[in-house]
Amino acid sequence: MYSDIPLRELKKATNKITLYEAALSMMRDRMFSQVMLEDICKRAEISKVTFFKFYQRKEELLIYFMRIWLTKRIIEINAEGKRGFQAFRHLLYQVAKEHQIRPGMMPSLISFLAEQNMQPCMPELSPAEVSLLFPGHEEAGSKSPNMYDLFQQFMKEEDQAGRLNKALTLEQAVQICFTIFYGAFLTAQLYNSTEIDRFYETHLGLLETKEEE
């Protein structure tokens, strides 16, 4: 509840989120690398000095996006009772939907992760940020999501249901989830295709139980 949070903390969280939303609004027609820090601050009407109080560098906005986007998807998955492949498909289809709105976001994120050579840790959010970003879902919003744990949960659910490809170990299935999440999207881009969902479905076949010949 806002009433439980000091006004000063709410103001700080509002400024941080405003900078983030300003960056998002500028990515509808360009890659993240083409979005200048000065332009973000100008659109948000917040100084560069204040920007660096919240983000050490511009690229942290991408991880902030990933934290918020993934948390929203988890809230949706839980609210709709999705499990296993159904929950994983929900994530993938939301990537495709996001791409229609901001075509530069996913390529920018993949490029950034490739440069980091690792899956980044999701940032912790203050209670004020959680309240502003996830009203009514503060408990879920306060938990930093972990993609590995999430994919492992989905694959365990399918394994227990007997729908996971029996030729795969659980760890291999999780690795394929990452390959699908990032790789299938890139493959669709290489084919210059807007039918990202179709590429996801093709790759999802690798995880599903094979029919006996």
Can you put this structure into words, describing what you see?
With 213 residues, the protein is mainly α. It has a single domain (7-205), classed as Tetracycline Repressor, domain 2 (Orthogonal Bundle), CATH 1.10.357. Helix content is 66%, strand content 0%. The chain has helices spanning 7-25, 37-44, 48-54, 60-80, 84-101, 105-116, 127-133, 138-141, 147-160, 170-190, 196-204. Helix 1 packs across helix 7 (127-133), helix 5 (84-101) packs antiparallel against helix 11 and helix 9 packs across helix 10 (170-190). The N and C termini lie far apart (58 Å). The model has no long low-confidence stretch (mean pLDDT 92).
Keywords, separated by commas or semicolons:
globular; Tetracycline Repressor, domain 2
How do the strands and helices of this protein lay out in sequence?
Elements: H1 7-25, H2 37-44, H3 48-54, H4 60-80, H5 84-101, H6 105-116, H7 127-133, H8 138-141, H9 147-160, H10 170-190, H11 196-204
Helix pairs in contact: 1-2, 1-7, 5-9, 5-11, 9-10, 10-11
Report the CATH topology name: Tetracycline Repressor, domain 2
Main sheet, how many strands, which sense, barrel?
A: none
Mean pLDDT: 92
Shape: globular
| Helix proportion range | 55-70%
- Tell me the number of helical segments per DSSP (H or I, 4 or more residues long): 11
What is the strand tally?
Answer: 0
Detail the poorly predicted runs: none
What is the CATH architecture annotation? Answer: Orthogonal Bundle
CA-CA gap between termini: 58 Å
Percent in strands: under 5%
The helix-strand sequence is HHHHHHHHHHH
Number of domains: 1
CATH class: Mainly Alpha
The secondary-structure class comes to mainly alpha
User: What is the fourth-level CATH superfamily?
Assistant: Tetracycline Repressor, domain 2
Report the radius of gyration as a whole number of Å: 19 Å
